Amino acid sequence: MVDWRTRASALLPELSAVVERESWSCHVFLSELWQLALEAHRDGDREALGRVYGFAHWCFRQPERFLSDASVVSFYEHVFDEWELRDEVAPWLPAEVVDRVRPLWEWRWPKERLTEVDRLLARSGPPVETRFERGL
C-alpha cells in the first residue's frame, strides 16, 4: 500500500498532528483535510486549496481501492455539505471524481440540491489545475 502519511506530511504540514497519530486512519485525515479546505475556501487561500484538492485527487487516483474509496467517502462525499461554498467548490472537482461520488450525493440529497450541483458542475468546466498534480 502507498504511504499516504509521508506524502501528507510533506504536502500538508498544518495537519501534521493528525498524520502523526498512527492510530488514526486515512478516513480521519481526509475528514480533517476537508475542514482545512473549508477554511481555505473561506479565506480565499488558493495555494492551500491546491494542496488540499491535489492530495485528495492523488488519493482518488491510487490503484489500490482502499485509499481511493476513502477519498470518496471521507472527503468528496462531503464537499457540498457547506452549501454556501458550493460556487467555490465546484471548479475544484475533476469529472472522474464527480462520476464516482454522484451516486452518494443522490442518496444523501433532495433532487433540488442535486440539480443545483449538476448545474454548477456543468458551468464550472474543467477542474482547477493544482501545482500538486503537476508534480509539486
Task: Note the topology.
Layout: H1 4-11, H2 16-19, H3 26-43, H4 46-60, H5 65-74, H6 86-89, H7 95-108, H8 111-124
Pfam families: DUF7674 (PF24722)
Protein name: DUF7674 domain-containing protein
Organism: Saccharothrix texasensis
Task: Give a nutshell description of this structure.
Helices cover 64% and strands 0% of the residues. With 136 residues, it is an all-alpha fold.
Structure characteristics:
136 residues; mainly alpha; globular; DUF7674 domain-containing protein; DUF7674
Descriptive notes:
By secondary structure, the chain is an all-alpha fold. The protein has one domain. It is built from eight helices and no strands. α1 packs antiparallel against α4, α3 packs antiparallel against α4 and α4 packs across α5. The relative contact order is 0.14. This is DUF7674 domain-containing protein. It holds the Pfam family DUF7674. It comes from Saccharothrix texasensis.
- Pick out the low-confidence regions: none
Count of helical stretches: 8
Sheet with the most strands, sense and barrel status: none
Overall morphology: globular
Question: Structural class, from secondary structure content?
Answer: mainly alpha
Strand content: under 5%
Question: Please, how many domains?
Answer: 1
Give the mean pLDDT. Answer: 90
Question: Termini distance?
Answer: 21 Å
Question: What's the β-strand tally?
Answer: 0
Q: How helix-rich are the residues, as a percent range?
A: 55-70%
Q: What pattern of helices and strands is seen along the backbone?
A: HHHHHHHH
